[in-house]
Structure prediction request, 499 residues.
Amino acid sequence: MTRIAQEDLAESLAEAFQFVSHHHPPDFVRALRRAWEAETHPPARAAMGQLLVNSKLAAQGRRPVCQDTGVGQVFFRVGCEVQFYRRDGSAPISLQAVANEGVRSAYRDPHNPLRATMVADPLGRRTNTRDNTPAVIQVEIVEGDALEVLVMAKGGGGDVKARFATLNPSDNVADWVIEQLPGMGAGWCPPGTLGVGIGGTPEQAMLLAKLSLFEPIDIDLLQARGAATAEETLRLELHERANALGIGAQGLGGNHAVLDVKVRTAPCHAATIPVALIPNCAATRYTRFTLDGSGPARIAEPDHALWEGIADQFDMPEALRVDLDHITQAEVAQWKIGQTLLLSGKVLTARDAAHQRMVDLLSRGEPLPVDLWGRVVYYVGPVDPVVGEAVGPAGPTTATRMDRFVEPLMAQAGLLAMIGKAERGPEAVEAIRRNGGAYLCATGGAAYLMSRAIKSSRVLAFDDLGMEAIHEFKLADFPVTVAVDSRGQTIHRFAQVGH
Prediction:
């Protein structure tokens, strides 16, 4: 019988969640580097270059790779011979409560505070729990005398793109998966891995897909040796067909949206094929540890050679430098899709709640708390800063959520351009064309790199909204890609078909 102190488990979980916030798994870094080296499409290559620099800087600075520090998910494999106890002699608590202790400690760490994501009362007030609890846990009882734990921080951009269908036995699974990808858009921040779960019941298929994402990236090895099973054959087919769609990194085009495809299967009813699809984004964050009763786990640091040769900052000599403090509509009209810009000067921030408030004010004929005329708005909800930072990691949020606000803010308030991630829908693209503005893509999953280009931050309005308040950032060489220009052309070609 192995006796494990629940305090050791909570401490191990806290350390794991802190670690994965700023460290990519080594296999992901290596796969991303291979994709970057092979990519020939300039916008996609630039985005992957930013992701690599961000990975290095986040590991060095021990600050989050992405501002969406994710839902705390824990998978327990508990040996039958494991017994839990409390060091203080009190009665053991539930694994859910222990997981909550670990998550609470990790997300409130003053040295690296993480952004709380979880909201209670999902159909009501949606109040933020402020410490990222509750953790989402799965428990499996297995043979043995050890406790195996898989810890992951899964951001909203990936899980929100999950898909499920119950196919007929005669249906083609590969065709169904490929049909889903254009409609998923780029909000899941490719490049990343696709997890496919096949069989079982609906909930089993989703779990299979999720768990498959945390297997090592090895598609290059599989391509070299060839498939030996039906699952491996499907992996190779999906990898090739998915990248042939041309979605590319961040949806900017190119051949490397998908770094790997993982497939897990289970027996199912003879009349059905349940199929689930879940992507893992460029902010891939997970680790494993085992407890045997000898104390808390210690997460091993990767060899720094992993990032050897990667620059300490993103530099692109051919990028166009833009002064936001003196920008004009005529200058915006010269921008072309796919062009990389380095932005300096003052930018406003706003997300869903701030947009709703501003549009409500406009509809009532009331003045806005900030002047948007000729300004640029960045869709961002940053992590709290620590000593020496103007702002914590501050990557873009998905722009499509703000699509319905584009026309009123541009036509009535004079907004000139927006910064976000992923594609815009037809309504937003048309509003941008009609008003002669632009939409710029920042790289999702490169939040720490982005924050290093933010030199100061102050709240201008709606301070009760916390991270969703309207801030004014002062930027210095903040990298973006022109995604929608003033003529209504969009770099996200897949969006024209997928939405």
About this structure: Residues 12 and 298 are 7 Å apart (CA to CA). Residues 1-23+65-155+305-312 form one domain.
